[in-house]
Amino acid sequence: MSGDDQREDYDGYARLGLDRSGQAEAFDAIGDRYDEAFPHKEGQLAAGAWLAGALPPGSRILDLGCGTGLPTARQLADAGHTVVGYDLSPGMLDLARTNVPEADFHQGDLAALRDGRLGTFDGVAAFFALLMLPRPEIPHALRMLHALLRPGGLLALSMVEADVDDYAIPFLGHTIRVSGYLRDELREVVREAGFEIAGESSLAYAPASTDVPPEIQIFLNLRRA
Known about the structure:
The protein is 36% helix and 29% strand. The strands form 2 sheets. A 7-stranded mixed sheet has the order 3-2-1-4-5-9-8, with helices on both faces. It has a two-stranded antiparallel sheet with strand order 6-7. The protein is globular and about 40 Å long. One of its GO terms (biological process) is methylation.
């Protein structure tokens, strides 16, 4: 992608940006109940292990939508990587700084990263972070992550398989808005954003104590083309 195309894409992402303060407030209120409600994260742990093992120790990795820092930031730091966590929720970040004190955490909206304020990365973990966006924003976000990755950099991406756009769902006593794709369309979107698919897995996941029904989670191991 040329510099002009990149700026145009970032500008488009900025124009699409919505007020997501309500999402942050919901996760602030949820706090450590999130990890209690989602105690088993086999798919996320496997994808995190791929990212941690495919990069040399000491690689700089962005944990996008890091939440409480568990399990991913903790997993990546334990593997010897330099971890930068980023999340919209100040409350979640307070927990993350306790859980993974050696990582560097920042608060902000995803769209703010388009200016490169956190530098570039060897890898990115984006586990269920992009599903919090309206669907028109997701391709822009993927291209932004492509630009933040160094050549050959890796992205571990997960989404819920669902044909929905900015759909309101109940979540631990709050309402959040989510988007998703069916898997063939998701593959097309990531390829159009400049990624090669190095691996894929999926599993059914039922939260332990929420009113959200079981979902199909898709995990993609991606390489910056």
